[in-house]
Amino acid sequence: MQPVLFYGVPEGCSFGSIVALEWLGVPYRLCRIRMPEQVSGEVFRAINPVGETPALLTSAGQLLAESMAILNHLGVLGIDKGLAYPQGSRGFDRLNAMLAFLNTSFFNAFSPLWHALEHGAEGIEKDVLTRYGREKVAKAHADLEAMLRGREWLLGDERTLADAYFIGIARWAEVHDAIDRRQFPGLDRLFRRLQEDPAVRFAQAIEHGERAQGGGGFAGHVGLDDALRLVGHEA
Ligand SMILES: N[C@@H](CCC(=O)N[C@@H](CS)C(=O)NCC(=O)O)C(=O)O
User: Fold this and answer.
1) Mean local confidence (pLDDT), 17-21
2) How far is Cα 222 from Cα 156, in angstroms, rounded to an integer?
3) In this structure, is the dihedral angle defined by the CA atoms of residues 161, 36, 46 and 202, taken in order, positive or negative?
4) Residue 177: is its pLDDT beyond 70?
5) Which residues line ligand 1 (CB under 6 A)?
6) If you measure from the C-alpha of residue 235 to the centroid of ligand 1, how many angstroms do you get, rounded to a whole number?
7) Computed from CA positions of residues 116, 117, 123, 128, in that sequence, does the dihedral angle turn out positive or negative?
8) Looking at residues 185-193, what average pLDDT do you find?
9) What does the mean pLDDT of the chain come to?
């Protein structure tokens, strides 16, 4: 069975999992979930009880939530391409540590800004959340810039699934006008390089509902009800 990735729009962190699937080149399908209405609805909670995207229906017909779990699950398919590493290796530990930083410190830095936007904060509440969020985003960028240590990609000379996940979150800086990325030259170079990547352009087109020409194994969209019927059905 082809895996199905449930991705959230607009601006979901699931963007990174779409880029990862494209880089891996494996056949897959997508199921589009609108946030917040559809993601928190009863039907989607049968996919992920937490009401969050991404979620993956694996090729074995099993459900998997959480970006880190999904990326590590997919990573096994990308070891020969250098996109991930076998568990027990130094590469695996470095990739896992980077994903953990991105999934916690980097992701969470944007939380006050998302809260202000999604809850229509006004006046002093908005000011406090905005200042707090911008400080957190700047610190997370400074920390990541230090971790990058002048390398081309987050882990070295070659791209890995960490770079795929990074771009899906880093673009939130523009959504919230949170920082000027040029203050972090290594991250700025990485961001610009990723923006030119065909898989990133493909994921952007998918999110915007535009006709998307992927270079990977995208096999089309599936509706949520049809995806539900696939749960538990192995190939
Ligand atoms: N820890 C989860 C967090 C997932 C998450 O927060 N997803 C957001 C989109 S980035 C979501 O689905 N939010 C639901 C909503 O906006 O109502 C992961 O890393 O996958």
Assistant:
1) 98
2) 36
3) negative
4) yes
5) 8, 12-13, 35-36, 39-40, 52-54, 66-67, 103
6) 28
7) positive
8) 98
9) 96
Structure tokens at 81: 């391409």
Q: Is 79 exposed, middle or buried (0-12, 13-18, 19+ CB in 10 A)?
A: middle
More confidently predicted of 216 and 26: 26
Give the distance (Å) from ligand 1 centre to CA of residue 24: 23
- Do the beta carbons of residue 169 and residue 11 sit within 8 Å? no
> Whole-model pTM above 0.85?
yes
**Per-residue tokens: 33:** 């979930």
Kindly report, residue by residue over 107-157, the tens digit of the pLDDT: 999 999 999 999 999 999 999 999 999 999 999 999 999 999 989 999 999
Q: Are 136 and 112 contacting, i.e. CB atoms less than 8 angstroms apart?
A: yes
Domains delineated in the chain: 4-82+198-230 (3.40.30.10), 90-195 (1.20.1050.10)
Chain centroid to CA 103: how far?
Answer: 9
SS3 43: helix
Count CB atoms within 10 A of the CB of residue 224.
17
Instruction: From 17, 37, 53, 114, give the residue whose CB has the most ligand 1 atoms within 8 Å, as the site to mutate.
Output: 53
- Which tens digits make up the pLDDT trace of 46-66? 999 999 999 999 999 999 999
